[in-house]
Amino acid sequence: MKRCLACGSKQIYECDKDYRYSGCGEEVLPKLSPNFFSGAKIRPTVCVECGYIALFASEAARAKAKQSQHWRPQAS
Question: What is the rounded CA–CA span in Å between residue 18 and residue 26?
């Protein structure tokens, strides 16, 4: 993300590595984890101007989505 989707700022900071989401039992990317006991990895980013937060799926999660029966391309 080169510019913030909310305010247009270029002040976007991303985490230094991908992390497994550890929310309250909810999965951000259901059925894309490497195994049953872990969540799919995401990389969080934040706009330091307005606070907009974006989450990006790891490369492994994106590759699994293409082959998953639980995920499909969005209709046009």
Answer: 18
